[in-house]
Amino acid sequence: MAIPGSLNPEHIRENIDIFDFALTAEEMESIRALDKASRFFVAFESFSYEQSEAMLLSRALPD
Fold first, then answer.
1. Which is the most buried residue in 2, 42, 51, 63, by most CB within 10 A?
2. What is the total count of domains within the chain?
3. CA–CA separation, 31 vs 15, rounded Å?
């Protein structure tokens, strides 16, 4: 989840207004279809850039 930040009061109000839309059943199904039952985020601090890139490209992410 991204946490938006801003110093602009108008942008802050826009960021807080999270209930100004609704998703259709078709949109929800599209989102559910994104679930691949695998972990995406890995703490890459212990890997080099090259290792991290290779893992992302191969989708061989450690658990």
1. 42
2. 1
3. 21
